[in-house]
Design a protein that fits this description.
This protein is an alpha/beta fold and 292 residues long. The chain is 38% helix and 11% strand. The protein has 8 helices and 7 strands, in the order αβαβαααβββαββαα. It has a 5-stranded mixed β-sheet. The protein has a two-stranded antiparallel ribbon with strand order 4-5. Helix 3 crosses helix 4 (122-133) and helix 3 crosses helix 5. The longest helix is centred in the middle third of the chain and has 23 residues, at 93-115. The chain starts with 8 loop residues before the first helix and ends in a 6-residue tail after the last helix.
Length: 292
């Protein structure tokens, strides 16, 4: 999923008003009301009907993240009209995503890699290689499976304003680690698998938003993810704003605000983790320039 990052829902709305719109050159774009985010529908907290899932159909989640998520639900559930568990085992989500993602990497990077292979990191190369190894039958299955996943998601979210999940399955880790390799004892089979809680939602094509909500058991920022129905962007934003307003009333659930005076200046010459990662061990010897 692609979208803006901001401090709060109202800032997201400000950005969306500036950047949303129809583009005839984009096959996924559709005409819409340019003022659709100017006035959101009324979604008072007490009227919200929410579903929830701890693990999006069985994705690995750290026990502490599960505990933090349950604690947030315990605070939120009494304030809304409905809050019930939803089965989000929607199909072969990871396999479908792997194929569709690899297909997009071939479209976006294959030609550039042929022209300048040293300009790209190992993960870009492997994603393109995976895409080139797939057959037309693989692609046909993935697109059909995505449609089945969408229909299953539509059935689960029917009658609900949003489905609530954790955003990340683990507490934030050291920035020098490119990804979480193991979650709750389970090894990740590919470097982006730890992001299953978010990328599985993208298969349905509906909107999603993350609300910062206090800290987890390790004292690190924790996020609540909300999924909305397809083309339900305005309704999801309205629900998110009501939930955000409620969470902000308690320091335990409000967005954590860093103490800038307590932060120490980095000694690493890091301009971007994409183009200038810290070179360590074999990476330093190989001179890798990207970690994407």
């Amino acid at each position: 999923m692609l979208g803006p990052m901001a401090r709060e829902v109202d800032d997201v709305l400000l950005m969306l008003r500036a950047c949303q719109g129809f583009d005839a050159g984009d096959p996924l774009s559709a005409p819409s009301d340019p003022a659709r985010f100017d006035v959101l529908p009324e979604k008072p907290l007490a009227a919200l009907r929410l579903g929830f899932s701890e693990d999006f159909g069985g994705a690995p989640v750290d026990p502490d993240i599960r505990a933090t998520f349950r604690a947030r639900l315990a605070v939120l559930a009494p304030q809304v009209a409905e809050c019930r568990e939803v089965d989000l085992d929607l199909g072969a989500m990871d396999r479908a995503f792997d194929i569709l993602r690899a297909e997009s990497f071939v479209a976006g990077f294959a030609e550039a890699i042929r022209e300048a292979p040293d300009d790209f990191g190992v993960h870009i190369h492997r994603n393109v290689e995976l895409g080139l190894s797939l057959t037309l039958a693989d692609r046909a299955w993935a697109h059909a499976e995505q449609t089945r996943i969408l229909r299953a998601f539509n059935a689960r979210i029917a009658g609900l304003d949003a489905i609530v999940l954790p955003t990340s399955p683990v507490s934030p880790f050291a920035w020098t680690e490119p990804y979480a390799r193991r979650i709750d004892g389970q090894e990740m089979d590919i470097y982006y698998r730890w992001l299953a809680l978010t990328y599985r939602g993208s298969l349905g094509g509906g909107p999603a938003i993350t609300l910062p909500s206090g800290r987890d058991g390790a004292g690190m920022p924790f996020g609540l993810q909300l999924l909305g129905p397809v083309r339900g962007d305005a309704g999801l934003l309205a629900a998110a704003r009501s939930i955000e307003t409620f969470l902000a009333q308690d320091p335990q659930t409000a967005r954590p605000r860093p103490d800038s005076k307590a932060l120490t200046r980095s000694t690493v010459d890091l301009r971007s983790i994409v183009t200038h990662p810290p070179l360590q061990g074999t990476q330093a010897a190989q001179g890798l320039r990207t970690v994407v």
